[in-house]
Amino acid sequence: MTESNIQNPLTLKLSWREKFAYGMGDFGSNLMLCIGTLYLLKFYTDILELPAFYGGVIFLVAKFFTAFTDMLTGVVIDSRRRIGPKGKFRPFIFYASVPVALVATAQFLDTGLGLTLKMALSMLLFMLFGLFYSLMNCSYGAMVPAITKNPHERAQLAAWRQGGATLGLLLCTVGFIPIQTLFLDNPSLGYLVAAMLFAICGLFCMWRCYSGVKERYVEIMPEGHKPGIARSFCAIFRNPPLLVLCIANLCTLAAFNIKLAIQVYYTQYVLQDIHLLSWMGFFSMGCILIGVLMVPAAVKRFGKKRVYLGGLLLWAAGDLLNYGWGSSSVSFVLFSCMAFFGTAFVNSLNWALVPDTVDYGEWKTGVRAEGSVYTGYTFSRKISAALAGFLPGIMLTQIGYIPNVVQSEATLVGLRQLIFIWPCGLAIIAAITMGLFYKLNEQRFVKIIAELNARKSAGAAPVDRPGTANAAGRRVKAISH
């Protein structure tokens, strides 16, 4: 059956149950990811007693490694020829989530080994986590074009995804430390128990996503097209909207992860109340959730690019206000809410814009490669995450951080700069990049989809440069439900 035999893909509406199931996927993946983003560096420095510099090196090496495993995932996805009833992407979500949960828990195990062995084991576990997480999460993200071609429904899925991610981050922010502190006599056991509980919950959420979503437009590469890591890089550089999005996302994800990694240090040593982290997380993540719920209506009225830029400006303003007047608990929470409210629009639209670049790439080259485009994009995110994990470790060493003691005035100033000035500067760079160079607006996207449908109806897909393989041999498997 071809796409022309089913309902117009640009008007197909998804049920709220399917959107909820898709959102559960990022809720579950963030339960397993954010315990590492938020607390693993502190576990390294305070429990394993690794120097902060060593912790940064572990993040840097492991994240660079997983950047390439993302590329490998794209190759594996696009190479699939025999697509069974489970679909092209869903099997990876189901099977890879098991080792992700196991390794996410094992990362918080204190083995009592020597310094060198502890660092080697920590790096190995982090790399394994990244490998399996790539298989699970890249498949989850790349699945959107197979679910729907309706741009408004894609924005809805992006909002549900970001809503799930926000709730996962909120639960990790609010719930992890209270569980960990139940074991005051054995803090290392507290980290392990908390990690295990979050990983188990994350696993079942991923399975709920697997069972609740449907792949309607499964497209298989033509026989002559051989996916590879080089093609994933080409997918970025031959796709201008994707390249701009990658550069902007490099800045925004680094800013967001630096903020998350440092906030536990900031609340403990600058505000002298580590339990404030839970309250801050509750209110600020609540603001993110409100922002996520506003995304579809805001996009419909103003367009994706304007909403994205507005979110970046709110984010930068919140960080600047916090740096100047965020010395008290109340002002810190208030201005953090403002900044995180801005991030809701940015992070939601990152996922809504990527499927649009998939269609742009097909329109320009004649070959549709969800896996290569998506993992080319996530490559930039992993490079960003590598830098975001490495820089706090380096900077903590540079500002003279010493675990579990009263910090010097210079160290406290350094923590304030790390959590506010660095993210603010990166958000401004992202705004300039998107504002000046991102050209794929809603009107142009509608024309691209119309031309793609016309090509498929004609049985061929011309391309814009000689020597590029066309999509005439591509098989499209449209599944009607």
From TrEMBL:
CDD domains, sorted: MFS_MelB_like (cd17332)
Region (Disordered), start-end ranges: 460-481
Domain of life: Bacteria
UniProt record, GO biological process: carbohydrate transport; sodium ion transport
Family matches, as InterPro entries: MFS_2, MFS_trans_sf, Na/Gal_symport
Gene3D superfamilies reported in the protein's UniProt record: MFS general substrate transporter like domains
Key words, A-Z: Membrane, Transmembrane, Transmembrane helix
Family statement: Belongs to the sodium:galactoside symporter (TC 2.A.2) family.
Protein name per its UniProtKB record: MFS transporter
